Amino acid sequence: MSLFRTLQNSPGVISIFTDARPVSAKVYQTLNKAYEKLNSEKDKFQLDVAENRMPTYDQYKSLVTNDKNKLVLDKCYPLLHDRELDIPQTLKQTGIHYSTIKGLGPNMFNEGEYSMIYEAFEALEKEKIRQSIFKAPLVVDWDHNVVANDVEGLKTLLKQYEDGLD
């Protein structure tokens, strides 16, 4: 069997970036139930749980490919919003100021901006400070390049894996 054929038959990967908020817990529970149901007879997908983490820049950049994904990402990254935000002091100390990213809308951060945001997020998580840099949940179907941040979006994402189930 060739390597390509082996990879072709491997299950997809769905990641969930989650935290302790109730909305994250609800999305995680829904995804976990679907995982158990859809994988009971055949591995449809693997589940990757990223607790209290945000996507890396390369992961983020790979998701900003269509308008639907951009709308979901806009909800997960408050700094993309074109309005005044209460940015934590730790973020300000990293050198990011709202004026440098204001007006990006649902586009994307450049690598330097994302690096600073990522570092600030990590510092705030380490100090257990509730932050508004990245708002979980974010569910990512890497193979189909589809994202969701709520139960309804998750159900839409999972429909492609339900084909063939009775």
Automatic annotation (TrEMBL):
What GO terms fall under cellular component here?
A: mitochondrion
The UniProt entry lists the main location of this chain as mitochondrion
Q: Which domain of life is it from?
A: Eukaryota
Q: Where in the cell is it found?
A: Mitochondrion
The record ties this protein, via SUPFAM superfamilies, to: Thioredoxin-like (SSF52833)
Alphabetic keyword roster: Mitochondrion, Oxidoreductase, Transit peptide
GO molecular function: any one?
oxidoreductase activity
Query: Per the similarity annotation, which family is this?
Result: Belongs to the FMP46 family.
Its function? Putative mitochondrial redox protein which could be involved in the reduction of small toxic molecules.
The name this protein carries in UniProt is Uncharacterized protein
State the organism of origin. Answer: Scheffersomyces spartinae
